[in-house]
Amino acid sequence: MATAISAPSKLLDGKALAKLIKERLKSEVKQVCEALGMPPGLAVILVGDNPASKVYVKNKEAACAEVGIHSFPYNLAENITQTYLLELIGNLNRNPQVHAILVQLPLPKQIDPQAVAEAIDPSKDADGFHPMNLGKLMSGLPCPFIPPTPAAVMKLIEQTGQSLDGKQAVIVGRSNIVGKPLIHLLLQRHATVSICHSHTKNLASVVKTGDIVIAAAGKPRLIEKNMIKANATVIDVGINRDLDGKLIGDVNFEEVEPGAKFITPVPGGVGPMTIAMLLKNTVDAAKRKLPEFL
Fold it and tell me: Please, which residues have CB within 8 angstroms of residue 19's CB and are 6 or more apart in sequence?
């Protein structure tokens, strides 16, 4: 189990943990460069002008530069066809300098996200969304790529130093990106898992059973004080903006924080760790090209 970061409060500092991970990745990148004669390469495809997506992509490119990963940015027009995008992905699949591929979501309505996920070579699937990789995760088989946000959540829970064995974990949100992969990651650690969604009756009573509560519904301040049991660990995946433009999570932080044992802030919690785990997936993809892995 990972050693917990010493901190003056119960806050799970995603920035601090991400910094440690990126420092370790720098030495791994150096190893890849020496062995392959090239750095790990990540292709990042952005379709359209979604402001939030543009910020995310910019942050990912900056993080790549920080650890020495070669970023291949592709900024495409909103009205491109699905055929065009799939052809680009095919070219990147065949490019030996590109070890990992990421297509930023959401995509315009004319493009099927599932078709895009299936087009990416499973060995270059930085987001871990290819059905082959998700199938391995669900089956409990060794999976080369864990989706970065669920992986970030698990790393942050590790930092609390607590075992998940026998704990009650409640996930609020059932997306393919976060909620569903987390079910299997938590089950692998022997947690008892409940998952809530828009059709859940008596949401507050279900959430209150959680020793671990993971909020990933995309609804600002959905999780309130009366929904959290004393000394629960609260992981907030949500990224929303209030009427003043301030970044807030799915958890009403000011209300929930006093009674929580551990809690992630927004921003500065899951977000930085998601990028760190994306970088890890990219470096791992490149490491599999090293002679000892071939």
Answer: none
User: 109 an active-site residue?
Assistant: no
Q: How many CA atoms lie within 13 A of 185 on its CB side?
A: 24
Q: In this model, does residue 8 exceed pLDDT 90?
A: no
* Nearest one of 94, 95, 100, 102 to 40, comparing CA atoms: 100
- Reply yes or no on whether 127 is catalytic: yes
Give the C-alpha separation, 258 to 267, whole Å: 18
* Candidate list 22, 104, 136, 236, residue with the active-site label: 104
In the set 13, 22, 60, 167, the catalytic residue is 60
Could you tell me the end-to-end alpha-carbon distance of the chain, in angstroms, rounded to an integer?
29
Residue 213 φ/ψ, nearest 5 degrees = -120, 125
Q: State residue 15's pLDDT score.
A: 97
Q: Are 279 and 19 in contact (CB under 8 A)?
A: no
- Asked if 95 contacts 83 with a C-beta cutoff of 8 angstroms, the reply is no
User: Does 104 participate in catalysis according to the annotation?
Assistant: yes
Do 241 and 270 meet the contact criterion of CB atoms below 8 Å apart? no
What confidence tens digit (pLDDT) does each residue in 165-215 have?
Answer: 999 999 999 999 999 999 999 999 999 999 999 999 999 999 999 999 999
Q: Is the pLDDT of residue 7 over 70?
A: no
Q: Residues with Cβ < 8 Å from 117, sequence gap 6 or more? A: 103, 125, 127, 129, 130, 131
The active-site residue out of 13, 22, 125, 127 is 127
- % pLDDT > 90, the chain: 93
